[in-house]
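Input/output pair, single chain:
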Amino acid sequence: MLSLNKKILVSGCGFSYSKQTRRTWVTVLKATGATIVDVGGPAVSNQWILNKAFLKLLDEEFDEVVIQLTSLGKLDVEVDSIRDLALVKSDSLRNFTINGVWPSSHSREHVSKALYYDYLNSPNLEMEDLFCKVTMLANWCKTHGQQLTILQAYPIPWTEQQQSQLEIFNLTPLYQKYTESELYKLHDFENSNAVPNIHYQLDLAKTLATHLELPIIDRIEKIEYFYKNNM
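Output:
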């Protein structure tokens, strides 16, 4: 049923995160009046995305939950003053923190990160952990009467068995769809930022508004008209 009164929880990486300079589909939905609580973050890992969402679900009630999964291999690191200077400040791209955590993403610039990928990173264990968490979150949402939508921003190597047990809104990664679209020609590559441009975000916002049954397509189209005529 179409309703603007739904309370929606969203968690994702910079592809969706609404508290950044670049506008995302979450920013667009918020601008139309949708009630959204965003617990994601820039460049964060799937561990962050799923953990923050579940912890929020323990505190508040929501009608819809949207999880935007990111790529594997990302590492979030708690920092203190020493780590901030050695790891964060010295990184050419991921030189920021969020709530005391360095979302180092795939950076190998510091020797500790290079050693992590060479000797400690365990993709199979990470995939197993991701599958288990998504499955348990889906069960939680089902038993609590909450609609769960899983988005993939980037490729995730699910097995056939895992895919058969998960309900994923988009098996073709969103970023792949973006790079294959005409809208990618308008991408701004400043500072190596991979967040899709506003034109794609508006298109994605309409898709998700329809999926979430939010009566806001006309409002999104007004925002879309503004950008088409003022950029």
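The mean pLDDT is 95. The chain has one domain: 7-73+121-226.
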